[in-house]
User: What shape does this take?
Amino acid sequence: MSDRGRWWALRGPLPSDRLFERDAFDADTAEELRAALVAAGQDTAKPEGER
Assistant: This one.
């Protein structure tokens, strides 16, 4: 939690082929931050079998 009372997280370092993805997140609550991170992970998930 920051000194301003917000939750934050950094994701990375991201590999060069994913540098366009969002890597910093902040939210008012832990639950909102968790939801943002999960959503970001789902946006970038590749179909099963792909790498």
Observations:
- The mean pLDDT is 83.
- Residues 30-44 form the longest helix (15 residues).
